């Protein structure tokens, strides 16, 4: 497969994944779909780190767009020089995207392990923090959180989605990093003047 076609495929895969991360992070800010709980001291600090919005979202959207551009005609022109220029830009953007995806994986993993901040026995705290993530397999513990309602299911679902999406982003950014490096060193199999 041409490095240009591969770059386009990776870019078109990264863009929706980054949008999924942004939406998932936005939903984490409104537990159970209600804005009445959106206060700094009532929502988990892992949500406020904005790993889905910044790391898995904006930091991956950049390499997604760069990869799509590397796979087609851009401002650098057509031919070997233009293709290599866009591929070089994609190398740096992919490394930037990998950092964002790693940030999102890390925060989402810790957010899943510690569980949500919720009200139990009159105290707002991370009541599942000492379980080392074992609460994930014991759904009967989820009802121990009195407020916000269904917050454990909400957090587990969305942090799991963030974790899965950012793992895919990390893989795809790694593939594009290698692909773009090959594109810079060896050029693209497309010929000058070939329509994209």
From TrEMBL:
Alphabetical keyword list: Membrane, Transmembrane, Transmembrane helix
Cellular location(s): Membrane
Keyword Endoplasmic reticulum: no
Membrane topology category: Multi-pass membrane protein
Residues annotated as signal peptide: none
Family the entry assigns: Belongs to the L6 tetraspanin family.
Protein name, as recorded: Transmembrane 4 L six family member 5
């Amino acid at each position: 497969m041409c490095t240009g076609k591969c770059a386009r495929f990776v870019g078109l895969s990264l863009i929706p994944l980054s949008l999924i991360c942004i939406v998932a992070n936005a939903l984490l800010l409104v537990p159970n779909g209600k804005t009445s709980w959106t206060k700094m001291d009532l929502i988990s600090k892992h949500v406020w780190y904005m790993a889905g919005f910044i790391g898995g979202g904006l930091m991956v959207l950049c390499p997604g767009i760069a990869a799509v551009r590397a796979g087609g005609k851009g401002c650098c022109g057509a031919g070997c020089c233009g293709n290599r220029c866009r591929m070089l830009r994609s190398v740096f953007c992919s490394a930037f995207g990998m950092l964002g995806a790693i940030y999102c994986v890390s925060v989402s993993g810790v957010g899943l392990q510690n569980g949500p901040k919720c009200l139990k026995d009159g105290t707002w705290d991370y009541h599942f923090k000492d379980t080392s993530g074992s609460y994930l397999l014991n759904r009967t513990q989820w009802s121990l959180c009195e407020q916000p309602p269904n917050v454990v299911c909400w957090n587990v679902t969305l942090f799991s989605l963030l974790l899965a999406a950012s793992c895919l982003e990390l893989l795809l950014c790694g593939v594009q990093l290698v692909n773009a490096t090959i594109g810079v060193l060896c050029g693209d199999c497309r010929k000058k003047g070939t329509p994209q």
